[in-house]
Design goal:
By secondary structure, the chain is of the alpha/beta class. It is about 25% helix and about 30% strand. This is Membrane integrity-associated transporter subunit PqiC.
Length: about 210
C-alpha cells in the first residue's frame, strides 16, 4: 500500500460510517389510545400549528443534562417535523377522547369549524430530574359569528416520569404528555379564564348604506 492512498482510504471509511442508516434512530410521537371518554365540549375545531420552543422544533431529540444544558445527538431524530407531528397527534388525540372533530390547519371541509384552538408550548423537554415536562398555554375561541360563545385561555404543566433517559423513553413520555394535554383541552380544564363573546365579529364589508 502506498502512503498517498492511506488518507483516501480513511476518508472512505469515515464516509461509510456516517452513511450507515442503522446509526440513525427516528422516533415517533404516537399518543396512546385514551382509555376514557369525555363529553364533547369542542364540536368542530381547527387546530393551528402548535408553537414549540426552538430546541423542541429541531429535528434532533433534545434532552437536558445535569448541568442544565439542553443537548441533542444527530443520531437520534424525530421521524417527522416536530411541529407537524405534535399538531397531528394532538388533533387526533382530542378527537379520540371526546368524539369532537378537531383537524389541524388548514381546515379542509366546506362547513367552517365552530371553534379554533391554539397551543403555545413553553417547554417540551426530557429534564435532568428524570421527567418529561410539557408546559405552556392553550386557547379555544368560538368563531365569533353568532355571539354568545365562550373563549378559553388556560395553562398546562404536565410531567411524565421517564426512568432511564434515552430517546425511546423521551418519545414515549412525550406521547403520553400529548395524550394528557388532549384530555385537558377536550374538557376545557386547567388554570386560566373563560371570556364570553358578547357580540358578533364585525364584518368589514357590512358598511352603512350610502345616501
Amino acid at each position: 500500500m502506498t502512503l498517498p492512498a492511506l488518507p483516501a482510504l480513511i476518508s472512505l471509511a469515515l464516509l461509510a460510517a456516517c452513511s450507515n442508516p442503522e446509526r440513525t434512530g427516528r422516533f415517533l410521537l404516537d399518543p396512546p389510545v385514551a382509555g376514557i371518554q369525555v363529553p364533547n365540549r369542542i364540536g368542530t375545531a381547527e387546530l393551528k400549528d402548535v408553537s414549540l420552543p426552538e430546541y423542541a422544533s429541531d429535528q434532533e431529540v433534545a434532552f437536558q443534562t445535569a448541568d442544565g444544558a439542553v443537548r441533542s445527538n444527530p443520531d437520534n431524530l424525530w421521524a417527522d417535523s416536530p411541529s407537524r407531528a405534535f399538531t397531528v397527534a394532538l388533533a387526533r388525540a382530542i378527537s379520540d377522547v371526546s368524539g369532537a372533530t378537531v383537524i389541524g390547519e388548514p381546515w379542509p371541509l366546506a362547513q367552517p369549524p365552530a371553534r379554533r384552538i391554539e397551543v403555545r408550548v413553553e417547554r417540551a423537554l426530557a429534564q435532568a430530574d428524570g421527567a418529561y415536562r410539557l408546559s405552556g398555554r392553550y386557547f379555544v375561541a368560538d368563531d365569533g359569528l353568532t355571539g354568545g360563545g365562550a373563549n378559553h385561555a388556560r395553562s398546562f404543566d404536565i410531567r411524565v416520569p421517564m426512568g432511564a433517559q434515552n430517546p425511546a423513553t423521551t418519545a414515549a413520555a412525550a406521547s403520553q404528555a400529548v395524550a394528557i394535554l388532549a384530555q385537558q383541552i377536550a374538557t376545557l380544564s386547567g388554570p386560566g379564564s373563560t371570556i364570553a363573546t358578547t357580540r358578533p365579529a364585525t364584518d368589514s364589508f357590512d358598511l352603512p348604506p350610502l345616501f
